[in-house]
Amino acid sequence: MTKLKIGILGAGGIATGRHIPAFQQVEEASFTAVMDVNEDRAREVAHKFGIGHVCTNLDDMLGKIDALLITTPNKFHAPAAIQALNAGVHVMCEKPMALNTKECEDMITAAEKSGKMLTIAYHYRFMKEARAAKRIMDSGEIGEPLVIRVKAMRRRKVPGWGVFTSRDLQGGGALIDYGCHLLDLALWLTGSSKPTEVSGTTYNHLSMQKEQVNEWGTINPATFEVEDHAAAFIRLESGAVVMLETSWAANIPEDEGAISISGTKGGLEVFPLRINKSEHGMLFNSDVTWIPEEKSFELLQAEHFVQCCRGESVPLVNPYESMFVSSIIESIYESAKTGSSVQIKR
Ligand SMILES: NC(=O)c1ccc[n+]([C@@H]2O[C@H](COP(=O)([O-])OP(=O)(O)OC[C@H]3O[C@@H](n4cnc5c(N)ncnc54)[C@H](O)[C@@H]3O)[C@@H](O)[C@H]2O)c1
């Protein structure tokens, strides 16, 4: 068996904490090359994980691999993905897909032209609760989704490392970094309907205060350029609506990452998983007490990507769906700026 040769661009936290260890467990793949703008960092990571090539030029790395994982700050996702796809290399790009819809479109065009695979690491879809929720939604038990509530809420956990508070490098804050995950999951669970209209607001009052209490390190208000809280109302082509709230730094009793779907036949809560229904003239809430989990989500994601590159499966995360997430995020930022709702035409 010829192993799929994988390279990684951006040797930071998510590369070393998730992707490299996961892909190194996949028998059909071999981790071949690593590159980072910080060459010392790339060498350190290559040494730690036994990766053969440390590259300083992307074209050079692309010549050595079959598939590229992109784990750089968000600003570099689109250019790196397009360069890799044009060179005939499959791509899995970290979330968010890119900074805006136009960049996502350009990535999809490059994938379609090259015939290579493009997918986005929306890993929540591989979690056992999410896969179980998808089975319930697909069974029709909840009926047609009508109102979808999405909460991606952290109490005072602004990332105090990396470049997460740079607008230039990340494109935004809590929404593009954390909200995107649960928004992606909610759209996928409810049938991936296209967004048509968005009204949203963003805030960063808490992170601009001096001497905040923050569990995830120190934040500097002088360089804090993004939102720490966002709320939005999103209309979908299906007729359903999404009510989204996301924050890195809310004044709430505790963190909450949850989705609640009200459908025509019943309701579904995710994290924790619960079905709400009426039956036999009564109201029932069914709690799920055990969900099988054979493998971790990161390993499932890695194995699935390798299978897709080998033509044995199609990507669970379709790039058009990731583009819808990015166009909603872009529209929330625009709506927050103008104070008006934004129509999504694409
Ligand atoms: N799926 C998730 O849950 C999850 C979690 C964390 C981060 N992420 C995503 O992963 C990406 C990276 O986040 P991170 O937490 O690893 O950040 P990080 O700051 O820890 O690592 C980023 C690395 O990229 C390198 N880099 C910067 N610009 C580069 C360039 N142009 N070319 C090559 N390397 C470059 C940096 O030197 C650094 O080593 C972001 O897009 C982020 O949104 C996803």
Fold topology:
Layout (H helix, E strand, L loop, with lengths): L3 E6 L3 H11 L5 E7 L3 H11 L3 E3 L2 H5 L4 E4 L6 H10 L3 E4 L7 H14 L3 E3 L7 H12 L5 E9 L13 H4 L3 H16 L5 E9 L25 E8 L4 E7 L8 E8 L3 E4 L3 E6 L2 E6 L9 H13 L9 H20 L3 E2 L3
Parallel strand pairs: 1-2, 1-4, 2-3, 4-5, 5-6, 7-10
Antiparallel strand pairs: 7-11, 8-9, 8-15, 9-10, 11-12, 12-13, 13-14
Bound molecules: nicotinamide-adenine-dinucleotide.
| CATH architectural designation of the largest domain | 2-Layer Sandwich
Q: Which stretches are low in confidence, meaning pLDDT under 50 for 5 or more residues running?
A: none
Shape: globular
Bound molecules: nicotinamide-adenine-dinucleotide
Domain Gfo/Idh/MocA-like oxidoreductase N-terminal: 4-122
Organism: Domibacillus antri
GO molecular function, one term: nucleotide binding
Pfam families: GFO_IDH_MocA, GFO_IDH_MocA_C3
Question: Can you give a write-up of this model?
Answer:
The protein has 346 residues and is α/β, with parallel strands linked by helices. It has two domains: 4-122, NAD(P)-binding Rossmann-like Domain (Rossmann fold), CATH 3.40.50; 125-297 and 325-343, Dihydrodipicolinate Reductase, domain 2, CATH 3.30.360. It is 34% helix and 25% strand. It has helices spanning 13-23, 39-49, 58-62, 77-86, 101-114, 128-139, 167-170, 174-189, 297-309, 319-338; strands spanning 4-9, 29-35, 53-55, 67-70, 90-93, 118-120, 145-153, 195-203, 229-236, 241-247, 256-263, 267-270, 274-279, 282-287, 342-343. The strands form two sheets. Strands 14-13-12-11-7-10-9-8-15 form a nine-stranded mixed sheet. A hairpin with a 3-residue loop joins strand 11 and strand 12 (267-270). Helix 5 runs antiparallel to helix 10 (319-338). It is globular and about 65 Å long. The relative contact order is 0.16. The model has no long low-confidence stretch (mean pLDDT 97). Nicotinamide-adenine-dinucleotide is lined by residues 9-15, 35-38, 41, 71-74, 76, 94-95, 121, 123, 162-163, 177. It holds the Pfam family GFO_IDH_MocA_C3. It comes from Domibacillus antri. One of its GO terms (molecular function) is nucleotide binding.
